[in-house]
Predict the 3D structure of the following.
Amino acid sequence: MSIDYDSYLGLERLLSAQNLRSVEFLRPAHDEMLFVIVHQTYELWFKQILHELDSVLDVFKAERVGEEHMGQVVARLERIIEIQKLMIHQVTILETMTPLDFLEFRDLLYPASGFQSAQFRLIENRLGLAADKRLFYGTGCYRDALASHQQQTVSAAEQEPSLFDRVQGWLERTPFLRTGSFDFWHAYRTAVNEAFARDEAMAKESPHMNAEERQRNLDTNAQNRKLFASLLDPKAFEELREQQRIRLSHRAAQAALFIQLFRDEPVLQLPFRLLTSLMTIDEQLSTWRYRHALMAKRMLGTKMGTGGSSGAAYLQKSTEAHKIFGDFFMLTTFLLPRSQRPPLPEAVLKALRFQF
Ligand code: HEM
């Protein structure tokens, strides 16, 4: 059966889905078309992101993730990043609408709000935003803003293993951490502690710091030393997890650090790009949140949102609080220059390189 452009893309339905409230209420506002179309394009991009995420989660569902899928997984995550860049840039199009023009129809939107975007919540949950990290707004939980059929889907996505959980499981299974008789982590501890000692000496001796800055640097260094010590001690690490200072399991954290340290080795190149992609996705999501918060501030000042939150203030706070892969960023604290890494035994190096 033949098909034409319009029916393939469902354009009749798509292009008749811009129902302007200002027209319905007989006070046509020119910029409402832009407002609606920008939101609709966001929802289409959200749909595409979920499509990519679901396929990635499908691969990670397996008991053992086939190496042959890794290239595609990384390519799909990198596609998400490109979409996110577009989503961030797209804010500027909406900002061509001035706050005064927005006021022409804003009152007609109550109580509709971005809070009711089920796809946005699905993205957060599929990626693995921890439920107990979510900021409360008003009295209710974020799900209360959604229609009841959406609440079920979004709740299910909160319960199902997320990308964070799946990647954590995959990291825990990393085989290269067992280096036979050579205790990599013992050698690494010595190297990192030497680096901390150098930083400490620099903070004590630097002529460019006043007493307060010096103390602050020394305190941070001491905290990092403590955190690093727990990275080498499963019991201490568990305590940090209980205090919610870290979310990743001990084994997964060690594997992530190992992959970052030896990312030049052929076998670790795709795992490294996977971890980098997750960090970038998290960073881009935060950038979108912040960009959206700035737009809300420009449009609303300190007015409350149509969904009942404190408006721009809530959005700004959520930029910091709603992080997902923050642990991978924290691990960077313990990276060393290549020249200071303890060398790996020949057998491990062999396993990390392609042999022909
Ligand atoms: C004039 C433009 C916009 C303004 C002034 C604005 C304002 C707000 C405010 C104040 C909130 C907090 C909830 C509330 O009390 O309503 C919010 C939430 C949200 N908005 Fe917007 N928004 C705008 C455009 C957009 C666009 C284009 C999107 C794209 C889909 C969007 C998506 C969202 C989402 C997903 C949330 C929930 C965020 C969260 O809880 O972390 N908004 N918005």
The two ends are 50 Å apart (CA to CA). The chain has a mean pLDDT of 93. The pocket of protoporphyrin IX containing FE is lined by residues 38-39, 42, 94, 102, 113-115, 117, 120, 292, 295-296, 299-300, 305-309, 311, 314-315, 318 (CB under 6 Å).
